[in-house]
Amino acid sequence: MTNHRKRGARLASVSAVAVLTLAACGSGGSISEETAANEEKAAAGGECGEVNMAVNPWVGYEADAYVYGAVAESLGCTMNYKDLKEDVSWQGFGTGEVDIVMEDWGHPDLEDKFFAEKGDGSAMEVGPIGNVGVIGWFVPPWLAKEHPDILDWNNLNKYAQDFATSESGGKGQFLGADPSYVQFDEAIVSNLGLDFKVVFSGSEAASITAFQKAEENKEFLIGYFYEPQWLFADIDLQRVALPEYTDGCQDDPAKVACDYPETDLNKIASTSWMEEDGPAQKLLQNFSWTNDDQNLVAKYISEDGMSPEEAAAKWVEDNQDKVDAWTQS
Amino acid sequence: MTTLAERPPVREVEEDRSGVWASRWAWAVVVLAAWVVVWRFTDGVDTLARPVRESTPLFDRLSDFRDAVLASRDTNPVVQATYAVGQWCVDATDWLSRMVSVPDFPRPVPQVGWLGVLAAATWIGYAVANLRIAVLVAASFATFGVLGYWSDAMDLLVITFVAVLLAVLIGLPLAVYYGTGGRVGVGLMTSLLDLLQTMPTFVYLGPIVLFFGIGSSAAVVCTLAYALPPIIRIAGHGIRNVSPTTIEATDSSGQTARQRLLKVQLPMARATIVVGLNQTIMAALSMATLAAYVDGPGLGKPVLRALTRNDVGGAFVPGMLIVLMAVMLDRTTTAASRRAEIAARGGDDPRLRRILLGGGLVGVLVAVWLSRQQLWAAEFPESDLGGRIADGVDSAFGWITSTFDGLTGAVKDTVSTVLLNPLQSLLADSPWYVTGLALLAIAYVVGRRRGLVSAAICLTLIVLLDLWHSAMLTLTMVLVATLLVMVLALVFGVWMARSRAVDLVLRPVLDAGQTIPPFVYLIPVLALFDPTRFTAIVASVVYAAPVAIKLVADGISAVSPSTLEASRSTGCTTWQEIFKVQLPMARNSLVLATNQGLLYVLSMVVIGGLVGAGALGYDVVLGFSRSEEWGKGAAAGLTIVLLGVLIDRVCRAAADVPKDTTGARTRTLLRSKVPVAGSPKSGLI
């Protein structure tokens, strides 16, 4: 189908070009030179082909995707970046519209649907990306400094009134997060007997703005947050200790009374794409880096105002040893 | 109804009406008082509240249905067919964007560079309208390039063009049916259009991807779904309203139904059809940011990307370019229809135009040729102006948030404690059957039997959808927001109507408020008001107030000058003039403004979910974000539709009875939902 579609499009564009050539006889300057150079390059390379990279909407993910892309392009691949949320990305594996999801924070429902064991087998796990996802309850640093005992959940009720807002109906407010994430906060609050009400911020932008403001104005705020995240370069949010995570303590969503586990983030890819087993696939298998690496690239993008391409190129240049390890296997 | 000759009957109706409304208000107060008393004793019982992240069997069944479709996509003939349509959309947009926006490999640049596109667009602007429009078009295109968003702007134009083309191809035949068809068919279609216009896009964005694929195909389809209703509604309205005497006269000469349609109805409704086209374009543009959620190309992409890094200035610049594009297309289509009218009457100098057009065409060809050959004419020269504006906006925004923080916090807390919390307690914390009965009673008081029936159906369905408590929380916010909208509409509407200068200054601001994507101002309002219900209310007021203000201003301007003269001669003060003459005489517009204000506010419910308002908006976003919650999102979307239908039908029933008190114009407008001013009831989400 893809071939057919391309042929149709090419035919159409050829006819349009023919029309345009009526007005555009003769040869031009650098455009035709670059065109020739591109044709040459295409003829020379071409082993790798096109890579459809899903770009999920957070900066850390952009760092993963564009660093992979920078290296893949140096191997002669053509990158297509697609701005998508997680769910839609996974749907794209089966249709060939998406080849790679770089960073999966855990989507049991999607795994059931698209992994081979239970679902249609269009997606597969390619192994950990090296980043560790830390989810938990966080407070702004000023608060942790001023009231160090707030970092233990046992003392939270003592401060409940300080956390009250216009939304929390007389209780303390706990700021729930963007709905994209797995959250058990309502259950945790009620099962630990905390005098708090969960108010959902509804988006990452809303949570970040709230934490920034709380730190700046020294306001009380406690909420769901996660690492790696570019905000930590700016504000070093402090994690509140909940009862420790044990295996199975989150199995029944209504009874959760423990902290979130640390998650090894996974790379996911389209099964049929992985079967091609070329340089792009090998690169994906080998791609692995740390939270610090990702945070640095994320900082280039969010703080220093670089485009994702520039940020990735800079990191690749500065970390040639790590990149070499991915490409030579 | 303002001319002197009609005075006596008008006064009769007027008295009748005020009597009816006085008794209705009295009854409404009685219902409210009884409700408060019952609530006192039943506070918190049977509220049907449930944890936000909890599912129900109904939601699971809906999700299962979606999963079944997903699992069958390789064999399901419907999915195969829609996928083929999607491929066609991809091909069309792909080809167009390689012509004007992205490099057409192996070329390093598109087939036609910026100079050629700009010249061609300017020429088209002159050809369809006039020199002023040509200048506007040229300036707009130049701005896209100078601010550094040439390619994104071209992509958005391409998507808009393809979607609007399809909307016209599909919409016009449907509009003919809508304008000439039978009662049942048209009624059915009205419900379908209502659904398309009020269902939050996030609910069907996922399924659209399932049926049509990711990227430009999804962008075209979701834009189409949203842009189709205005042209059907407005063009259909125009066709239906061709004067019956004209039709009778031509019918008597023995024409066929086909002749009647092609020679009489369509030509006579042309002006209205153009209005429909215009509104369709505006609706298409308002989908730009949402389409970016499924990789739809265009100016929405940089807006969303800036949102992930809390970059206010970075979202502002492309957001304003969307506004600019809307203004450009709006003025062009309006001027084009006016020109066509003038030309049809022969009031035009064809020779001069022809010479200019011919000369211009040569210029366009030269520009296209240059832009295919020369790099400077193909790639827009880089400039840092866009970045500098973004920085300026950032610092202005920083100053505003730090300066007004205390004040905005106080405003938020006041509105929350005085208005929001009490109303929310009453609506959401009463037992569901108490709230339901009270709402039914109010619907009966203002809308009599028709209001009661509509309300009963909608409320029953809302209960069945398992989201009663969320629905009541949302209804509270919608009511408070509409109240604020109407306060603004009265203050600024009257002011605009009484002062030409104010009107001139405010109109462009109002246009911008209606067309700017809410994602651009989410972070500023969040910084000022925190993630709260009030933030959601502010966002919806920004979007809904312009329409209401314009409607009130237009209504008051329409009050006949002789009436004002008469009141002045009797020595009315300015305040008396406003309250005793202008506002009462513009009552029709006030009713219409309230109805439209409510529906516009309702279309912002999902945006509210993104800024901490919770309730139905959050549920819809949740459904889009996590696949296992899709069922809940769909139920929440349907509940929003039902709230919209409930509000709208009760308003209409109230406007309709008794004795035509609100006048024919309001009734037709309400019935056909012609977006009278600016962009249509465009649920941006």
From TrEMBL, chain A:
Signal peptide region: 1-23
InterPro entries reported in the protein's UniProt record: ABC_Gly_betaine_transp_sub-bd
GO molecular function annotation: transmembrane transporter activity
Keyword list, A-Z: Signal
Residue ranges occupied by any ABC-type glycine betaine transport system substrate-binding domain in the UniProt entry: 50-317
GO CC field: ATP-binding cassette (ABC) transporter complex
The protein, known as: Glycine/betaine ABC transporter substrate-binding protein
Organism expressing this protein natively: Nocardioides flavescens
Lineage per the UniProt record: Bacteria, Bacillati, Actinomycetota, Actinomycetes, Propionibacteriales
